[in-house]
Write a structure and sequence with these properties.
The chain is built from 6 helices and 14 strands. The chain is α/β, with parallel strands linked by helices. It has one domain: Spore Coat Polysaccharide Biosynthesis Protein SpsA, Chain A, CATH 3.90.550. Strands 1, 4, 5, 6, 8, 9, 10, 11, 12 and 13 form a 10-stranded mixed β-sheet that branches.
């Protein structure tokens, strides 16, 4: 199994820091932020990793090199224009081959039991499985609604309108579901490539343009609930808070 770590964004909400340092290379707990998802993948036995790069790409490539110091083999996927969260998949079709693959955000720190999630994904015959968590304020995030078996029954994607959602499918599920937040990692089957939206250049949102229509069609997508540590760097305030938290209590178990 191989993986993609999404690291091409400009990190605009972390300016001025990201004017000279790309967000994935910001220091947190004594290491670059991107080390956390990379080491999580390594602990799960995934050592062949692609990283898409755009903003200050040379800083990421110089900082990580070929990945050997982390026990990884890193392949870089440069983007001349930003391709969103879904577009990077298009150029990596041959890299992933015919195996399941993982996609992870570069700005997330969590102690996810990825091997257990992979087993969950396989035993359910899922096309895609999303790591989910329950934040204190669900109203601030898109909702992924799962039934008691973990099957994803509806995506409620937060819109620009305050408190508004775009629902896939539009009607509420007829059975009991629980809402969760996507927490930055999913497992995918190569068959999903058959459902990619047509775009030129291939810039699109993985959630809105690829997976939400799949949920609306009733295809087998699942959610794996993560109940452990979950932190993400959204802006300057969350970054500074995390620096203080990790300085006082570094996450040694996931370093």
């Amino acid at each position: 199994m191989k993986a993609l770590v999404l690291a091409a964004g400009k990190g605009e909400r972390l300016r001025p820091l990201t004017e000279t340092t790309p967000k994935p290379m910001l220091e947190l707990g004594g290491r670059p932020l991107i080390h956390y998802p990379l080491l999580m993948l390594k602990r799960a036995g995934i050592t062949q990793v692609a990283i898409n790069v755009h903003h200050l790409a040379d800083r990421i490539q110089t900082g990580l090199g070929a990945g050997h110091e982390l026990g990884l083999e890193i392949t870089y996927a440069p983007e001349t224009v930003l391709l969103g969260t879904g577009g990077p998949l298009c150029g990596l079709r041959s890299f992933f081959g015919e195996e399941s693959f993982v996609v992870a955000n570069a700005d997330t720190v969590m102690d996810l039991e990825l091997p257990a999630m992979i087993e969950f994904h396989r035993t359910r015959g899922a096309l895609a499985t999303f790591a989910l968590t329950r934040p204190a304020n669900m109203s601030a995030y898109s909702h992924l609604e799962i039934d008691r078996d973990g099957r994803l029954r509806r995506m409620r994607l937060l819109t620009a309108r305050q408190g508004g959602f775009e629902d896939f499918p539009p009607q509420p599920p007829t059975l009991a579901v629980e809402p969760y937040m996507f927490c930055g990692l999913y497992i995918c089957e190569p068959r999903v490539y058959e459902m990619m939206p047509a775009a030129e250049p291939p810039a699109f949102s993985s959630m809105k343009d690829l997976f939400a229509p799949m949920v609306a069609r009733g295809l087998p997508l699942f959610g794996f609930v993560h109940r452990g540590l979950f932190r993400t760097v959204d802006d300057l305030a969350t970054y500074e808070n995390l620096k203080r938290e990790f300085a006082a209590n570094p996450p040694l178990a996931i370093s």
